[in-house]
Amino acid sequence: MPENKKNKTDALEDNEHVEDETAEATGTAEQDRPQVPVYERRRLSEEDGGPVPAPGAESGERPSAGAGSRCGFAAVIGAPNAGKSTLVNALVGAKVSIVTHKAQTTRTRVRGIALDGEAQIVLVDTPGIFAPKRRLDRAMVETAWTEAREADVAVLVVDAARGFDDTVDPIVNEAANLKIPLILALNKVDKIHKEKLLALAGEASERLKLESLFMISALSGDGVEDLRGFLATRMPYGPWLFPEDQIADAPLRQWAAEITREKMFIRLHEEIPYSSTVETTSWKSVRKGAVRIEQTIFVERESQRKIVLGAKGQAIKHISMEARKEIEEAIETPVHLFLFVKVRENWADDPERYREMGLDFPKK
Ligand SMILES: Nc1nc2c(ncn2[C@@H]2O[C@H](COP(=O)(O)OP(=O)(O)OP(=O)(O)O)[C@@H](O)[C@H]2O)c(=O)[nH]1
Ligand SMILES: [Mg+2]
């Protein structure tokens, strides 16, 4: 029986707490940030340098929500690693959802908001769909299908280089039962030959009743604008749900936790990314307009905590520095980031962790 470390790390030691720069973080006027901040469309798209600029970002002209305005939800679904989050970011023109080379990066619904003419398209990025084993897997997969069922249209993203393999087949079969228009995005076309792509498109059209099919590269931006234009025409008429400069609906503190998780996914290997979760526990304004952010990384075992820290704290320093840089750039504010690593053997069975992630807690 592994020793239960539940309370061990409640008392923080110095080496479990990392600030990647020396900073005086004892400011005055300490106020919590608003829970639901507005992401500034232009600023984030310029800073992020994503493959597709936000609509109107160059000219400064904003489309208005006039009489012909449209607004709706487009769920982006598919197998893990298909490029869903990359696509959502490209459609929005800013990084709203984290991306890594590893499968099962996205864990919960992430909404990004794109504009096209008079349409506001709320893109719903979802966790990759796969055969779930753990409780967390089940919550992720269930979220993906729930979001697809509740949207106005679904965009099924398929990695064209993999085609309709065993991981995609069950998704295609289930997607055929959706009662909303289905759009297929054959992604990563930069990686495959045209003949294979055409064969795949033919197979898809036979198997699925498609509203439309796009061949895209979410990474390079090829075909992304066309897809956005098409989605705009499929949004129902109605007023916009979000202000025109808002690009995401998640609280900034949740987004910042995701950025740190992304850096962990990239830096750490094997089971660590799948055995960890990150939460922002504190976000306070401090002196000179800076913010002090505290985040907790939960892992399942003491051995994992050691790996996250790394020899002489090198791993966590790197993660912290990378995350801080990106958060700073996005919010255009100096950031003092403190990371704490805690062992919670059963965090993946703790309803509170699911609440923090925005996931429903499956009974088993
Ligand atoms: N070559 C190429 N790579 C891509 C393209 N789109 C995404 N990728 C890469 O594919 C990997 C996975 O991308 P993600 O956007 O995280 O995939 P996802 O479908 O959101 O994955 P999960 O969140 O794990 O379900 C990353 O390394 C991306 O850079 C593309 O059009 N071309
Ligand atoms: Mg993703």
TrEMBL record:
It is a peripheral membrane protein. Residues 1-15 have a biased composition (Basic and acidic residues). Keywords: Cell inner membrane, Cell membrane, Cytoplasm, GTP-binding, Membrane, Nucleotide-binding, Ribosome biogenesis, RNA-binding, rRNA-binding. GO terms for cellular component: cytosol; plasma membrane. Residues 268-345 form the KH type-2 domain. Residues 104-108 are annotated as: G2. Residues 1-68 are annotated as: Disordered. Residues 125-128 are annotated as: G3. SUPFAM superfamilies: P-loop containing nucleoside triphosphate hydrolases (SSF52540), Prokaryotic type KH domain (KH-domain type II) (SSF54814). The keyword Transcription regulation does not apply. Residues 187-190 are annotated as: G4. NCBIfam families: era, PRK00089.1, small_GTP. An essential GTPase that binds both GDP and GTP, with rapid nucleotide exchange. Plays a role in 16S rRNA processing and 30S ribosomal subunit biogenesis and possibly also in cell cycle regulation and energy metabolism. This is GTPase Era. It comes from Rhodomicrobium vannielii (strain ATCC 17100 / DSM 162 / LMG 4299 / NCIMB 10020 / ATH 3.1.1). The gene is era.
